[in-house]
Design goal:
The protein is an alpha/beta fold. The chain is about 45% helix and about 15% strand. It has a single domain, classed as 3-Layer(aba) Sandwich (Rossmann fold).
């Protein structure tokens, strides 16, 4: 049910953290995965790690800056050149350059968040959906956040972008479900990643961050990959337009 043998998957922001967890899990189930982020050397290290594992899938590297539409087009085209068709698109890369009240956020920071966290995902969906429609098969996964379900006094713009990702998923699911293209979101809570380092590195902040989590801890990156495999595989063949919250119960 979870077999991804022969499937090709692009995972943005996959050189470390949650994206890397997804790439490793999919390779373990037989998928060929594209490791992609801005820094080629970190991508190469992650791909080498996956290719050194005793797994049926393989990893290739295609660096990409998600803020550049031309780079996104190159990512998609180069994947087709090296691997063939694109079966799975995982939009994981995101930006959050500002912490503080939303009334103080500069225009350039707001625009960067909206461009990288929403528009780039929309662009990638546009690029891969036509071939998925032809085959009547495909899986798109956008990594949102529980921030998309809640307001925040310090990362408000980020949360707005993640809420938009959830609606982006619903709209793509509605329009293209008839072509057997399943579009879903994963909404992680606080995980031990570099992206969220400011929220868990300091013991006091970590204590505050986990106070409302029923499991009284933060998530580890390896606890995300299996969910993406489920959504991309036959096991999730009738899951469409859904947001899967993975947060230890924090939102309850």
């Amino acid at each position: 049910m979870f077999d991804l043998s022969g499937k090709n998957a692009i995972i943005t922001g996959s050189s470390k953290g949650i994206g890397k967890s997804i790439a490793v899990a999919m390779a373990q189930q037989g998928a060929n995965v594209v490791i992609s982020s801005r820094k080629a050397d970190v991508c190469e290290a992650t791909a080498a790690e996956i290719n050194a594992m005793d797994v049926p899938g393989k990893a290739i590297v295609i660096p990409c800056n998600i803020s550049d539409k031309t780079a996104l087009e190159m990512l998609v085209e180069e994947t087709r050149t090296q691997l063939g068709q694109i079966d799975i698109m995982v939009c994981n890369a995101a930006s959050n350059p500002f912490f503080g009240s939303i009334k103080d956020i500069p225009d350039d920071a707001f625009e960067k968040i909206m461009n990288n966290n929403i528009k780039s995902n929309h662009n990638l969906c546009q690029m891969v959906i036509p071939e998925m429609m032809e085959r009547k098969d495909g899986s798109i996964i956008i990594v949102s956040s529980i921030g998309g379900l809640n307001a925040s006094p310090v990362i408000g713009a980020y949360n707005i972008s993640k809420a938009a990702d959830i609606m982006l998923v619903k709209n793509y699911a509605l329009e293209f479900g008839q072509y057997n293209i399943r579009t879903n979101a994963i909404a992680p809570g606080l995980f031990r990643t570099d992206f969220a380092k400011a929220l868990w590195e300091n013991p006091e902040i970590l204590k505050q961050s986990t106070a409302t989590c029923p499991m009284k801890r933060i998530g580890e990156p390896d606890e995300i990959g299996g969910a993406a495999v489920f959504l991309a595989s036959q096991a999730g063949s009738f899951v469409n337009g859904h947001t899967l919250v993975i947060d230890g119960g924090t939102v309850v």
